[in-house]
Amino acid sequence: MQTSSKPSSRQNVISERENPHSTSGGYFCVLMTQTGCCLGLAALLYITLTIGTVEILSLFPKTRAYSQQTPPVVTAEVCSKGSKGCTQKDSALRFLLIGDTGGLPIYPYTTLAQGTVRDTMIRLTEQNKVQLVLNVGDNIYFTGVANEFDARFETSFEEVYNHPIFDGIPFFTIAGNHDHFGNVSAQIAYTKYSRKWMYPDYWYKFNYTLSDGTTIDFLMIDTIVLCGNTADVEYGDLWDLLWKGSKVPDGPKDKKMAEKQWDWIAKTLNESRADYLFVGGHYPVFSMSSHGPTQCLVDRLKPLLEQFSVTAYFAGHDHTLQHLEVPTTDRHSHITYIVSGAASRTDRSTKHKNSVPQGSIKFNYPSGWNPFSQLGFSRGALIYVEINKDRAKFDFLKGNGESKYTMSLMSRKRSVKLDGDEEARTIEL
């Protein structure tokens, strides 16, 4: 699949005045709408519009630049080639599962929660020798990027995760709905310029083989291509997003492209003989929080996850941590659904707790009341995962690293039994 155009010969420096996604005074309204306080900022918005964007931005640095860097040896392309993929000299695979990392569209371009989560990621990587990061979308808030030279790559990603411990560690990434408001092909193209950012195509597979022969397959899918977006905006800015409003995804924009991906998903799942098989996308199949289940995925992805005994499905979109165990259609087994979308902001909503199958919710975080958590004024949250030949252990963490909940999944070649009372699942491969 052709994913991007040839990069421009222009100098790899972009002024923030050239970036439409970092200059909208409506940003404050978008944020405060999420907390029901937009009207209270009407005067501030009026002043912002009156003074003009140039004067506001004059308070902050004008130009951000990044240099073209040589990608690490372990790239998404390497991991997706051949049956062995990325072979590890280790009997365990350790990774961090994060989502909705997109930061802010104006200075300081990041949030308190994102910084807190980043510091914990550094500590975990130092202590546990983390080998990769899995990022399930909404990489750049609120309207993605304009092109592969967009300053937001630097200000909301490279500068945030600028620590030697991350050198050579791939951040395997997929697009979210906010990324699709901008230029997703530019995010794919940016893979050429970063030592961390790994996003080779709209959907792709990568795999790891451990020193004892244990195999782990990852499928990264574009759920916006499959199901449609939450607003009819493309290559837009914040005003476009405000004007169009939000909706439930009601079908793919490009049906041919969606069907091509569905065919690829079915074929790739069918071919997998890995000990562990994970699928990651932005929209959740099931969620108890603000957005709730995604009907398109319930109708078409859930049957595939069941048919091919997927170990777990990872998603973001809702700014929470969740663990759900949903019975298969025949009620003989279950599929694990995990949400990790709290890497730069959190959401305490339980709006859809009655929209998921009864008894499926095993864990949800955070809870309580914080009117500013969607603005990033919270600890954030993430998941640490460690896989060996016997089991995959998931540690659900507050942004500061405090463990809130743990669970384990067995290899697909072994019986799966969770919490001591779940029905066992076995698969012959």
The CATH architecture classification is: 4-Layer Sandwich
Give the class-level CATH name: Alpha Beta
Percent of residues in β-strands? 15-25%
Whole-number mean pLDDT: 80
Helicity level = 10-25%
Overall radius of gyration: 21 Å
Give a short account of the largest sheet: 8 strands, mixed
CATH structural fold name: Purple Acid Phosphatase, chain A, domain 2
Distance between the termini: 30 Å
Could you give the count of β-strands? 17
What is the CATH H-level superfamily? Metallo-dependent phosphatases
**Total helix count?**
12
The helix-and-strand class reads alpha/beta
Low-confidence stretches: 1-76, 415-429
Principal-axis shape: globular
How many structural domains in the coordinates?
A: 1
